[in-house]
Each structure stands twice: as structure tokens, then as C-alpha cells.
Amino acid sequence: MGRLSNEFHKVNAAARAERRLRLVRRDRFIWPGSVLGAAGFLFALSPSAALADDPGYTLCPGGLISFTGFCPADPPQPTPTPAPTPAPTPAPTPAPTPTPTPTPTPTPVDPEASFATGDLSVAMGEGAVAVGVSNTASGQRAIAVGTANLADGSNGVAIGAANEALGQTNVAMGMQNVADGAAVSVAAGIGNHSSATGSTALGIANTTSGIASSAFGYGNGASGTFSHAIGTYSTALGDYSTALGLNAATGVSAAGGLALAGWYDRNGDGNFLSPDYLNVDTDETAAAMGISAVAVGSGVRASGDYSSAFGVNAIAIATGSTAIGFGAVGDVAGALSVGSIDAPGRIVHVAAGQSGTDAVNLGQLDAVSQRVSQLETSIPSGVVAGLGTLALGNGSNASGDTSLAMGGNASSQGTQAVAIGASSAASGEQALALGGKADAAGKTSIAIGSGARTGGRSFDILSIPTGPILFAAAAAVEDESANDAIAIGTDASASADDAIAIGKGASASAAGAIAFGAGSLADTANTLSVGNASQTRVITRVGAGAIDENSSDAVTGAQLYDTNQAVAGLEGRVATLEDQAGAAVQSSAAATSAARDAAQSANLAAAGATTAAADAVNAAAGARTATVEATAAAEDARSAAQEARVSLARTEHIAISGEGDAPVASGPNAVAIGGGAQATDGNAVSIGFGNIASGNGAVAIGDPNVATGTGAVAIGEDNVATGIGAIALGNANQAYGAGAVALGNGASATGDGAVAIGPDAVAGRANQVALGSARSTYKLAGIASDASRAAQQGAVSLVTSDIAGNLATLDLDVNALQNLGNRLDAIESGVNAIGSALNRATRRADGGIATAMALGGTVMPADVDFALSFNLATFRGQQGFSGSLVARISERVWVSSGIAGSTVGGSTGARAGITFGW
What we know:
By secondary structure, this protein is an alpha/beta fold.
């Protein structure tokens, strides 16, 4: 009680005395000897002394004081207590005649409905009871027992010394307790005050002023609705908040907060905590000031909404933050802190994480570090400068948006460009360079193979060197100004616009020229060459070309044979003409000479027709210079020549067929070679059985492939490339979307800029790059070299992958990872300390229950004046003991006292009580 202010008690005593006087006035009568006491001392020795300074009373006969201005007719008189006398021998006596008792007018109190016993005690109200000295019970069923107690209100209870229960169903028990809430408030112990409906103050000097609040212990205060303060000098100001321990506190705005304090006030200068004023040392208390905040420990503070602080001097100031351990600071929203900037903590004994959001321990991190070290030999870092890019390999650089550079010093500078291989470069937009030192510089150009190159100003260029097993080397489009050129094969060269060179050493140096086959040379514009000056080739399985005046189709040997037969027949007819001409010599030497010339010309025409239909045409023309007699023969020769004519004049497209349906080349400079091959639109190339190339510059080579879209390329077997610049190379690959690339066996790239490389690789969205499938393994040569490590600069990153195989990088802070263990150690220490405190609290609670069980066993045998009881109890491993003494002080009054304790240190307590019987 040393912390309770003396002035506080004086004010409370005066207030209680004033309330008692008002109660007396309200009841209108005071009977002699019934003056009330207050605050443990007599307010007055007689009614006249008590009201000497009050002019509003009337002194009635018999000493009755009235505040109504009139006196009752027959005031009750005190009846002395008769001395005990020996019991007379019973004898039959007649029944006494009842004497009528006059009824006072008015009657403020019904003596038969209330009970009062003891000096200066008053019971006013139906069923009211006042027992002891200076007690007042006012109200229906009010009870005041002890000394100087006041129960003012129906069902109010005041038991002990100087207690006040003011209001309906309020209870004050012990000494100097006040329960004055509107209803159902409880104050029990010493100096407690419960002033709100449903509130409870239990212990010493506790105060509750919030609805349904509670305070238990010493010097605690609870003013928030449904708040709780438990311990010593703890304060719960926020609604639904809880303060537990020594100097724990929750703020006014800390709705739902929890403060659990840990150690005793070091300086010994703590102050009594009232609902209106909080005066505590924040270094020695737990304070939860934010909404639903939790503060547990000593010197802890949780001021952020939904924050938590545990340990010693921990502070959580950010919303949703958690601070655990000595001096921990939670200043980041939603984060856990086990230290501060100046004193970082450790977290130890952490189990290995299992799910994606679990914390990892140092063992797991070491395993990752080892794997990273191994990956350094296979995945060196590159430079990523563009949006949505990927660079793998030492010195690799992906600077074009959505580009890919893979391999040492690989470079992808064009938008959606792909460079794969050591020192490969793809600088053109949607360009593809595949192979060591492959260089694709033109827009949508392709260079495949070691040293393959496309020109810097070329567009829709395909440079694919091939060999018997591997891609060959040094295929090139040499002239940077060559547009839409194609070079396929080792040392193949296409150096002019629209030129095509296919085969080892093939060369197409004139615009629109095609060199097909190893060593072929096409140096004349718009011609097809299948050999060179020293090496010629036979074209077999050629379909029969159309023979008419508009036809530009190639002819077959069978068609030429028919022409030879026709020319042979022409020779016979010319010979006949010669004979006819000889017969005409007689009539005209000039005619004979002319006929001879015509016959000679016809012979020459027949000989020429054996090798070329064009000469047959010339022969027919020459035959028209014959004489009148040879005119019919010359006309016949001309007609035969026309029937056998084969046109090999240059056209704007080429279609060469073998078996199957005839190829179709329907666009300018289109090329279709093979049964059923189709080349639609300008510069389209379809080579192989059933290939389809549809779109300007589209290329389909193999059996059968489909390339649809400007610059689309499908090479191999059963490949599909659909979209501007789409590329599908290999077997059964599919590329759908502008710039989509599918390379390998069964690869699929769907979406603009999607790239799928390797067997069964799948890139299913725009600009996604997929390498291989779930069965694939990866190896990048040179990644573990000293040169690769030396080339790395600045902070390193860790390559990560999700369940779908998407790659990204994660910053790797080695120092932060090393400090993680220290922070885990600090958290573990704090958690262990909390566990120890909870264990001690549990033992104390179990000991308290055992003590309560033992204390409840007091028995008062009949017909004795004193009884002494000893009891033992056990609860959850703790033993309780008690001793009680009961004494009869009158026929219907007993007093009792007891002491109890348990095996838990510091749990011994005492009690006292009084029992009335009637």
C-alpha cells in the first residue's frame, strides 16, 4: 500500500461519509444508536451530534430524527437484552392473548423485511441485511457485513471493512474497496475500485473503468472496454487490450493489443497507474500502443498497428512488423527483425525449409553455394541490357529487346535476335546466328554453322552450311548489298540480289541466278546452273513441259525425241521436194537453183532440229525462201518445227519436278523443286517433295515442310514455320508467331519472339526462350575457366528456376547470408526465454490451484466453539497445503482464518472470514 496516495484515501473517506449522510436523508428517519460510520471511524456519536449542523431535521419523541417534518405515532424503543435465567419446569399454561401493535404512520422501513444487527448498522430495503459495526445495507436484498461497509443498491454486497458497493448487483469485499459501476461491478481485496458495468478489480489498489474490464494483482488499471490488466502496475487503456506482468501497458488506440511485461522496476520508483494517467519508465515496461499490437517482455514497445515485440528492449514501430530479442527493431512493415542496424541478431536451430515460403537454414544455403560454385563452371554470367533478354556465357551480351545470346562472347544486338555459339553474333532484327563465329547481320537473316555470315544490309537471308553429319563451315553471303540471297553448304556463296547457292562450293554471283549442286557456278542473271565449265550434270525425272507459243517450260528427252522424229520426217519430205525441184530444172534454171538452195536449207534445218528446236525454227524460216514448187515443203517443215518446239527462255520463276504432282512456283523469282512443291509469292523457295513456301522470301526445304509468312523458314522434315520471320529447323518442329524460332526435334515455339531450342523444347508465350525439355541437361563449355571468372565484375547473382522452368536471377548477398545464423541464434534465445517464463507462470498457476483446493476444506463440527483444520491437495505435480481456524463468537456468528501455500516458492497466502447463521 506504500504506493497509494494518502490524499486518495482521505478523499475516498470523505466521499463515503457524504454518501452515507445522503442515504440517511433519503430514508427520512434515523433511530437512536443507528448513526452510520465511514472510512473506518465513527462519523458521529449520536444523531443530534451527527446532524447538529443540519437545519432540515426534526427531533421526535424517543430520540427519533425526522427529515420529513412529522414524527411517527409510536416510535420503536430499544429493548435491553434480558439476562439468561434457568429454564422453569414446563407446565400447561393457557395461550396468551395477543396484544395489538399500533402501526406507525408513515413507515419508511419494514422491520420484518430487513435485518440489521450490531452497533450503528442500518438495513433499509426488502430483504436487506446489515451485520457488524457501522454497516449500511440500502436496497432490496442488499448485504453489508463487517465494519463501516456500505451496500447501496439492490442486490449489492459489501463485506469486510470500509467497503462500498454502490449500484445494482455490485460487490465490494475486503478493505476499502469501491464497486460503483452501473451494475455488476466487483472490487475485492484492499483499496480496489471498479467503476464500470461488468468490471472486476481484484487484489490491491487495482482500478477498472472500462465496460467488462478487469484488473488483477497490485496497482493495475484497466480503462478500455473489455480490457484486462494483470500483474503489478500494468495498465490496459485500449479496448479489448491486455496488459500482463510488471509495468505492462497498452495505449488508448491499441484496440485488441497485448502487453506482457517481464521484470521488476529497477529504480523502485514506479507510480500507481490510473485510467487517466500513465507514468511508467518505458525502458522497464511492456507497451502495446498500436491496434492489435502485442508487446511481451521488458522495455518492449509495439507502436505499429498489428505489430509484435518480444524480449528485452525490443521495438516494433512499423505496421505488421515483428521484433524478437534484445534490442531488436521492427521498422519495416510486415517484416521480422531479430536485431537492429547496429546490432544484427542471429536465428539458430532452424529446420530445413520445405515449401516455397519457408525460411532456409545455413546448411541449405551452403548446399546452394556448392551448386552455384559448380554452376560457375557451366553458366558464367553475361550482360543483359535489353528488355526480356537472356545472356548465358562468359562475355555474352544480349542488348536487343527480347534477344538471346548463348555462348562465350556471343552477342544478340537486334530485337528478337538469337545468337548461339562461341563468338556468334546476331545484329539484325529477328536474325539467327547458330554456330561458332556465325554472323547474322541482316534483318530476319539466318546464319547456321561455324563462320557462316550474312550481310549487314541484307534482308531475309538464309546462310545454312551443312555437312554429312554436322553443320559445315564458312558458308557466306559475301556482298552486304545482296538482298534476299540464300547460301546453303560448305563454302557456298550467294553474292547478288535474289541469288541462290546450294551445295558445297556452289556460287551464284548474278542477280536471280541459281547454282544448284556442289561446285555449280551461276554467273548469268536469272539462270539455273547445275554444274560448271569443267563439270556438268544431267537433270533427270523432269516433267514434260507445255509446248505452245507462250510456254517457257523445260522439255524432257522424250519431248526432244519426238521433235527429232518430226524433223526426220521433214528430211524425207524435203528430199521429195528436191526431186520435184530437179524435174522443174527443165523449165527454169533459176527455179532449179532456187529449189536446190531450198533443199539444202531444209537439210540444214533437219540436222539442226536433232539438237535444238530453235534451229528447227530457223530451218523452217529458211525454207520459206524456196521456189514456188518448194513452198509447200517449206511450209510443212515450219509446221513440224512448231509442233516440236521446246522453249527454254528465262522466266520469272522456276519449277522442276520429279515424281508426284507437278511443282508450282507462282510468284516473281519463286523456286519450286520437287514433286508437289509449292512456292507462292515473290522470292519464295520450295525444295523437296511436298514442301510449301508461302510468303515473300519464304523458304521450305526438306520433306515435307511448311513455311508461311514473309521470311518464314522451314528446313528439315515435317517442320512448320508460320509468321513473319518464323523459323523451324530440324524434325517435327513448330514455330507459330512473328520471329518465333523452333530448332531441334519436336520443339515448339508459340508466340511472337518465342524461341524453343532442343528436343521437345516448348516456348508457350511471346518472347519466351526454352532450352530443351524436362529430360535435358545443360553444359556450357568454358564457364568454369579462370578467364570466365576474371571477366565477372561487381555483385554476382544466382540463377533461379520455378516449377515451370522459368529462369531469373536473384541477388546474392554473402554477408547477409552469413549474418542470418546470428539472427536465428538471437531469435532462439528470445523464444527460449519466453518459454522459460511461460513454464514458470504455469508452475505458479498450478501451485495456486493446488493452494485453492487445499484452502477450501474448512469444517466446523457441531456443538464446539473452536475447530482447527489442516488440508493437503495436489494439482499437475504441485502440492498445496492449508491450515484453518474457526471460532464461534456468538450463537449465530463464527469467525475463521486460514493460511495456505504450495510447493511453488512465494505462493503462501492468508485469509479471514465471518459466517452468520439464522
